[in-house]
Write a structure and sequence with these properties.
globular, 698 residues, alpha+beta, 13 helices, five-stranded antiparallel beta sheet
Length: 698
């Protein structure tokens, strides 16, 4: 009896009501309408929603015969404050809507490993389906009732069911080589580790490196690479001990914690790979391959060094996808025959391609640009012809977006940077607009910057110019002998070299928009999350260029780094050169501490923070409030570094729009529900507080 036949017997699973996970046909004859927050929040996503994320796994799984591709569709649902998810399959030779094999489940979020412990991030995890060797079934991870399990679906759409019943999350799965068994693994002794922390709490948790108090008093779980592995026989459903071969197959399916240089291997063992001449992770990796006689051949052309994302074999030729051009703003596909001195260009564009995988004579990728949300396409590996397979968001063809102008510049270190200047749909040439800076990547479709808190096209629709910035390369790239990311981070923070470089880049971009007549220099705002928030805070201290600011995370402060961050974080920072809290080193903090500079910061500041991070902002917020400065803070429950709840995203969008409209346009929404908000904000703008009249540094 085949695995396929057994799967046909799976009971039917009741689906949540997400009927529009596959979009209905749309009419292109209707007049275009304004964009709404619901449009942005409800985008159907494939893979990581962050378009600047190039290092994660591909969302695509190509069938063994190369004719189909499977992936997970994901869409936020405001009505339930949840997500609609579906496992779907596209025929590669017949473009059109995919077939739905299963729908349902909760969002699966990334669990970061930092300083030896698991930390929740809120970012969406890319779930990659796994085809059975015979192509008749797909295994995948699905989360229900707060636990992630291993599921299997028939490839013909006739049934899907959970095959694991774990009390803790299943982290990884794979098929055995013969397809007879499904293998899945969870962190070693995970349930026992959680129970041990619970028991410890009965006598009080020891406050040690495990505790990150900005998140919780409960100790974090130590990270482990070891897995408890289970094998399930597909025919019988019988659970058995996994042998060494099965364990090796499961281990091979684990995604690396850190980005790895790409490699491709042929059936006969020939390799093509990217290799760095020095051990620094910032050094450019150069393309090499194994020749027919086993010799190593190096591609010496400039196009073969640096920015290589993926590598594939196509017969005796090597294909590779590369980011290149001004601050790596372009994507190019090359074809290299090892007897040629230089590779041939198959395709070059400023569009963004993600998750490319090879299927016979084509690549399957997502494609997007600043005005076009992500779509599934194929690329002919010889001609470079691009064909659309599926558009998950056809509604955007009927939405009126702002105009986009690509600006390029160099910062004061000579480093390349660029930004997308987004103008209102009805912009008239010569009009100087209030402008909002959104950081710190501008790849692909423009949502709301890194973290997606600042809705670019909604700002443009309200009459703002928006400068969506792409950061320059690291300041530490000037030091090629640095061998670890820890050393790179330490070099970046020394004398605030990275902060100065980034602020210089932002100010140069602002000046360019002002000089070209798009922006009013007295009405420029700045925003940011994570590294972007650090740049925003640095800007408020070191320049008078911004008339309003909003941050999604906050802050690096003298006492905060040694207290709310916890012992492990404080020790990590001191290893990079930060002083201990007892040093009272005002010189070190002079250019980066909002708290120590509170008396001279007059820029209105809005903080919208996750409940597991807001404690890091208390020192800065308390100092600004004590100095009677215009600051307001909101805390969102059950949120992380990246906010994941749809209703919170809508609230964050709306308040950011209101904040900058109030300070830069002197506009108030007439909605009675916002009356208290504007009463508070008018008090912040009282005559007792001065409002800056800034000009960008030139």
């Amino acid at each position: 009896m085949s695995a396929f036949a057994i799967l046909l017997a799976f009971p039917t699973v009741a689906h949540a009501r997400c009927d529009d996970i596959i979009p209905a046909p749309t009419s292109e004859t209707r007049p275009k309408r304004p964009i709404t927050a619901v449009d942005l929040i409800g985008l159907r996503d494939i893979g990581d929603p962050d378009s600047a994320s190039y290092a994660g796994p591909s969302p695509f799984a190509v069938s063994p015969d190369g004719s189909r591709v499977a992936y997970i569709l994901n869409r936020a649902d405001l009505a339930t404050n949840g997500y609609c998810r579906a496992l779907v399959v596209n025929e590669l030779r017949a473009p059109g809507p995919p077939a739905v094999l299963d729908r349902g489940g909760e969002l699966i979020k990334i669990l970061d490993v930092q300083r030896g412990f698991y930390l929740p991030s809120g970012a969406t995890r890319t779930i990659v389906p796994r085809w059975s060797p015979d192509g008749r079934a797909l295994a995948y991870l699905r989360r229900d009732n707060g636990v992630t399990q291993a599921w299997v679906a028939n490839a013909d759409g006739s049934g899907a069911r959970a095959v694991s019943h774990s009390s803790i999350d299943v982290d990884v799965l794979a098929w055995s080589q013969d397809g007879a068994r499904l293998l899945f693994g969870s962190r070693r002794d995970g349930a026992a580790a959680d129970a041990a922390i619970d028991r410890e709490g009965e006598a009080g948790w020891l406050y040690d490196r495990r505790v990150s108090p900005e998140i919780s008093a409960r100790p974090l779980t130590p990270a482990t690479d070891e897995l408890d592995v289970v094998a399930v026989e597909v025919q019988s459903g019988r659970t058995m001990v996994a042998d060494s071969v099965d364990r090796a197959a499961l281990q091979a399916a684990i995604a690396p914690d850190l980005p790895a240089d790409p490699v491709a291997v042929t059936a006969d063992g020939r390799r093509a790979w990217a290799e760095r001449a020095v051990s620094s992770p910032l050094a450019p990796a150069r393309l090499k391959a194994t020749g027919r006689n086993g010799e190593t051949v190096q591609c010496g052309a400039a196009a073969c060094a640096g920015g290589i994302l993926s590598i594939w074999w196509d017969g005796d030729a090597v294909l590779f996808l590369r980011r290149e051009g001004w601050d790596k703003g372009d994507t190019a596909l090359y074809r290299w025959s090892m007897d040629a001195r230089a590779p041939g260009t198959v395709l070059r564009t400023d569009d963004v391609f993600h998750g490319c995988v090879k299927a016979t004579t084509m690549l399957v990728c997502t494609r997007e640009n600043s005005l076009t949300p992500r779509r599934v396409v194929t690329i002919d590996v010889v001609t470079g012809a691009v064909r659309e397979i599926f558009n998950p968001n056809p509604e955007f063809a009927g939405i009126r977006l702002g105009q986009v102008v690509r600006l390029r510049w160099r910062n004061d270190l000579g480093l390349e940077a660029w930004g997308d200047l987004v103008l209102p749909p009805d912009y008239r040439a010569g009009t100087k607009l209030p402008m909002v800076v959104v950081q710190y990547h501008s790849d692909g479709f423009l949502r709301g910057g890194t973290g997606d808190d600042y809705p670019i096209y909604l700002f443009a629709q309200r009459g703002f110019a928006v400068l969506s910035t792409e950061r320059p390369t690291f300041f530490a790239a000037a030091f090629p002998k640095l061998k670890t990311w820890y050393d790179i981070n330490a070099a970046n923070q020394k004398n605030w070299g990275e902060r100065r470089s980034l602020l210089s880049s932002v100010l140069t971009g602002v000046s360019l928009a002002v000089d070209r007549g798009f922006a009013d220099p007295a009405r420029v705002g700045i925003t940011g999350l994570s590294d972007g928030a650090s740049t925003a805070a640095f800007a408020l201290i070191n320049t008078r260029a911004f008339a309003a600011a909003a941050m999604s995370t906050c802050c690096m402060e003298p006492n905060t780094t040694a207290t709310y961050g916890g012992i492990a974080w404080a020790d990590w920072l001191r290893g990079m050169g930060y002083p201990p809290a007892t040093a009272n080193d005002r010189t070190f903090w002079r250019e980066t501490s909002l708290a120590q500079n509170a008396a001279r910061i007059d820029t209105p500041l809005l903080l919208q923070l996750a409940d597991n991070e807001f404690r890091l902002a208390l020192e800065a917020f308390g100092a600004l409030r004590e100095q009677r400065k215009p600051v307001e803070m909101y805390v969102y429950p059950d949120e992380y570094h990246v906010k994941w709840q749809p209703v919170h995203r809508r609230a964050v969008y709306e308040r950011n729009l209101d904040w900058f409209s109030f300070w830069l346009q002197h506009h108030e929404d007439s909605d009675p529900a916002k009356a208290a908000q504007y009463t508070r904000w008018r008090a912040l703008r009282s005559p007792g507080r001065s409002t800056p009249q800034p000009r960008p540094t030139r």
